[in-house]
Design brief:
about 300 residues, alpha+beta, Extracellular Endonuclease, Chain A, 7-stranded antiparallel sheet, 9 helices, globular
C-alpha cells in the first residue's frame, strides 16, 4: 500500500499538483459575484485555481501575511479530497482544507502511513514520531475522504503530509469527536442537504518543541467549519461558521466539544488568515453567524 501511495503522489507531482505559496493575496470580495470574479483571477497561480476554491476552500486558501516565508517554507499540495499548505521548515501541514457533503460510499479502511514523494528533500517518512509517544493525527480524515471521494482519496489521507504529531488523548478523543460530528454521526453536519468546508491545522506559535527527526510538535490545533445552508448555491451573506481550538493534551474528563468553541479571531491572532477572500464586513457577519444554536442542538449528541 505504501508503494501505491508513492506512485499516486508522484503522479500528482508530475501533473503539477504542488505549488509554492506566494505572497500575492487575491482581492477580497464583498459579494457572491465578487467571490466568483476573484476566483476567475486566480488561474495564474497553479495552487489557487477556481476549481480548487470550490472543491476545497470556498473562502480561499489560508495565508500567513505577517510571517516570513523563511519561517515556514510552505508548499501547497493538492490531492483528490483535500489540499494542504505544508511547512517544509516545521515538517507539518500548517493548514488543510477539504469539503464534505453527502456520504456516497461505504467505508473500508485500507491504508498505511507513507512518505510523500513530493517532499523528498526533507527526512519526513512513515518512521517519524517513532518512540516519541506521539501519534500521527490525520488533518483530512480517512473516513471523510473514503466516503465522499473514494479509495484513492483515503489512501492519500495516509500521506505524512497530512499528519501532525498528536497526543493519543487528543487524536483518539476530542479531535476524533469533531471529525465524527462533521462526517460520521447519524445527524452529521455534512449530509445530502448541506455541504461543509473545513479548514484545520496546528496553531502557529513561536518556539514549538521539535522531535529528534526535526518535526515540530504543535501546542494547539484549530478547526474552522463553514456551512453552505443553501447547498451548492453559495452565498457569503448566508454562510455560517463554527470554530474550535483544542489544546494538545486533549479534553478533560468533563469537557465536551462545545467547550472548545472560540471566535475565529482568536485563531487568526496567531498570524493565519483563515478566509483571505472575504472583506472585513463579510468576515464579521460570518462570525456573527457562528452561534452553535444555528448548527442544531441535537447534533451535539454523540450518536
Amino acid at each position: 500500500m505504501a508503494k501505491i501511495l508513492s506512485i499516486l503522489l508522484l503522479c500528482s507531482l508530475v501533473l503539477g499538483c504542488s505549488a509554492k505559496q506566494t505572497d500575492t493575496t487575491p482581492a477580497r470580495v464583498s459579494s457572491e459575484a465578487g467571490l466568483r470574479d476573484s476566483q476567475q483571477n486566480l488561474l495564474s497561480d497553479p495552487g489557487q485555481d477556481q476549481a480548487s476554491y470550490r472543491r476545497y476552500a470556498i473562502m480561499g486558501f489560508p495565508r500567513f501575511p505577517a510571517v516570513s516565508e523563511e519561517q515556514l517554507d510552505i508548499v501547497v499540495l493538492k490531492n483528490v479530497g483535500y489540499v494542504c499548505g505544508f511547512s517544509k521548515k516545521l515538517q507539518i501541514p500548517m493548514w488543510t482544507c477539504y469539503r464534505l457533503g453527502e456520504e456516497k460510499l461505504e467505508y473500508e479502511r485500507s491504508g498505511e502511513w507513507s512518505a510523500d514523494p513530493r517532499l523528498a528533500d526533507i527526512p519526513l517518512d512513515e518512521d517519524s514520531y517513532v518512540g516519541s509517544g506521539k501519534q500521527r493525527g490525520h488533518m483530512a480524515p480517512a473516513y471523510g475522504m473514503m466516503t465522499r471521494y473514494g479509495t484513492i482519496a483515503m489512501i492519500e489521507s495516509f500521506s505524512m503530509a497530512n499528519a501532525c504529531p498528536m497526543e493519543p488523548r487528543l487524536n483518539q478523543g476530542i479531535w476524533a469527536t469533531s471529525e465524527n460530528h462533521v462526517a460520521r454521526n447519524k445527524r452529521r453536519w455534512a449530509n445530502s442537504k448541506t455541504e461543509v468546508w473545513v479548514v484545520c491545522g496546528p496553531l502557529f506559535e513561536p518556539d514549538l518543541p521539535i522531535l529528534a527527526d526535526g518535526v515540530a510538535v504543535p501546542r494547539h490545533f484549530f478547526k474552522v467549519l463553514i456551512r453552505d445552508p443553501l447547498n451548492q448555491k453559495f452565498d457569503p451573506e448566508q454562510a455560517q461558521s463554527l470554530a474550535f481550538l483544542f489544546p494538545a493534551e486533549g479534553a478533560g474528563e468533563d469537557q465536551t466539544l462545545e467547550d472548545f468553541i472560540v471566535p475565529i479571531d482568536r485563531i487568526e491572532a496567531s498570524g493565519i488568515d483563515i478566509m483571505p477572500l472575504l472583506d472585513a464586513r463579510l468576515e464579521e457577519k460570518l462570525e456573527r453567524n457562528s452561534a452553535e444554536k444555528r448548527w442544531g442542538t441535537a447534533v451535539w449528541e454523540s450518536e
